[in-house]
Design a protein that fits this description.
Elements: H1 2-9, H2 16-21, E1 31-33, E2 36-39, E3 47-54, E4 58-59, E5 62-63, E6 72-80, E7 83-90, H3 94-102, E8 135-139, E9 142-146, E10 153-155, E11 162-165, E12 183-188, E13 194-203, E14 207-215, E15 221-230, E16 239-240, E17 244-249, E18 252-254, H4 257-260, E19 270-272, E20 278-284, E21 293-297, E22 301-311, E23 314-322, E24 346-353, E25 359-365, E26 369-373, E27 385-390, E28 402-407, E29 413-417, E30 422-424, E31 428-431, E32 441-449, E33 454-461, E34 471-474, E35 485-488
Antiparallel strand pairs: 1-7, 2-34, 3-6, 3-35, 4-5, 6-7, 8-9, 9-10, 10-11, 12-13, 13-14, 14-15, 16-17, 17-20, 18-19, 20-21, 22-23, 23-24, 24-25, 26-27, 27-28, 28-29, 30-32, 31-32, 32-33, 33-34
The structure holds fe (ii) ion (FE2).
Length: 494
Amino acid sequence: MNKLLNEKLVAQPHNLQDWHKGYLSQPNEHEYWIDEIEGEIPKSLQGTLFRNGPGLLDIHGAPVHHPFDGDGMVCAISFREGRAHFRNRFVRTEGFVKEREAGKILYRGVFGTQKPGGWLNNAFDFKFKNIANTNVIYWGGKLLALWEAAEPYRLDPSTLETIGIDLLDGVLEPGDAFAAHPWVDPSCHLDDGAPVLVNFALKVGLSTTINIYEFNLEGKLLRRHAHIVPGFCFIHDFAITPNYCIFFQNPVTFEPLSFALGWKGAGQCVKFQPNKPTRIVAIPRTPPYKEVKVWEAQSGFVFHHVNAFESEDKIHIDSICYDSLPEVEPGADYKETNFEALAPGQLWRFTLNLKEGSVERQMVESHCCEFPAIHPDKVGRPYRYLFMGAAHNSQENAPLQAILKLDLHTQERQLWSFAPQGYVSEPIFVPQPNALREDEGWILTMVYDSSRHRSQVAILDGRDLDRGPIAVLHLKHHIPYGLHGSWTNQCFVS
Ligand SMILES: [Fe+2]
C-alpha cells in the first residue's frame, strides 16, 4: 500500500517552521490562467472550485490571535477545456474596509484577537467583525461567503467583487447568524425529488434556538422552523438525512466574565465539560417538526460530520470526534501548537436507535483526520467512500499532509501524502460526468508547498489515490491554509 511506502520513505514528514509559513498573510489579489502545470487537467473537468479561508493573519503587522479571526479571502479556480484560471479576492466586509482605512485592528476577534490598548480598551466591547471567512457556496444564482455568527456576504461569481450583505430575500434580519455548513439534499422527498439546500442558524444564550432553513434551486425559502434546546450550544456543523437534521450539542459551557472584561475573546470562554455527555438532537425535516428526538452519548467534541443516513429504526452518523475541545489560551501562539500533546480528530460512527433511544459509537478510523468529503449524491444516504485530509503517519497527531480514502464496505484504505513539504486543505469530490461508480471522480485539494512558499491545486483520481496526482497546478504565490469550499459545474470565466 502507498500508505506504508510513504510512511517508510519519509523519516520526518513535517517540519513546524515549514508548516508556519502557510499561515503568512496573502495581501495581494491575483487573476491569471495557470501556466505551470504538471500532468494534464482532464478535459471533462468543467466548472469552478470556490475556496474560502483567512487571507490576512495580521492587520498591518499586528498578528491576529488565531487563524479563525482572519479576514475571509475567496479563491476561484475555474476549469475549462483542460485549462484552469485562478482568481482571489478579499471579501470587502464592513470591518475589512474600515480596518484597511484605519491601518490597525478596530475589532475584537471571537478567537482572541484584541484591539490595541490592553484589556481596558477591550472591556465591554461586544461588537464583532463579520469576517465571512469559513465557506463559500453558489446557490440560487448567488455566490455567498459564509461565517456562522453573521449574515452571508454576496460576491460576483465572475469577478469575486463584493456585492454586500445578503439577507436571502428577506429570510434573515440584519444581524442574524447563518451557519457556514449548509448541505445539499440531492433529492428531497418533500419537493418531488428536487435538490434543496438545508442550513441552520443558532441564537445562543442560556437556552439556544436552532433555526432550520430549506431553499429550492432558485434560492427561495421552502421551509423554516425553530427549536429551543436547553443550555448553551457551540455547534459548527450538522448532518442531514431525508427525514432529520441532526445536531451534536457538545458538552461545553460559556464563561462570559473574561470576555466582558476584555481579557479573552468569546471563543476562549467556551469550556469543555469532560464529565458531561454530548447531547444528540434529531429535528424532523417534515412538518409539523414536532417529534424531536434526543440521545446522550459519551463526552467528546465534534466540529465536522461526514454524512448521516437512515436504516429501518436507526440513524447512523459518521463524525470526526476529538476527546476534548482544543482551547485557545490568551497568551498562547497557535503556531506553537504542540501536536503531540493534543488528541487527534478521529472518525467515529454513531448509531442512534429511534425506538429504544439508545446510542452506540464505534471508531472507524484512528488516523488523525479532518475535513471530510463524499459524493454529493450520497448526502443523507447510505454511502461507501469518503475522503479526508489526514496526517502523514497513522499513529500521530500532526498537520494534514495527505488525502485518505476509506472504503466503508471493505475497510480498504488508500492514502496519498504530500509530505514532507506539502500541507493539504479540505478535499472536494467532483463526480465525473456519466460516472457509474461512487468513487469515479476527482479529488481537488489546495496544497501549500513549503519548499517554494507557493500553493498548488492538486487533482487526484478518486478511484485510485495510489496513482498520485493526475495534475498539479502551481500557483504563482501562496494561499494561507483555507477552511471550506465547494464545487459548481458552472464556469464563470470566458
Ligand atoms: Fe467547518
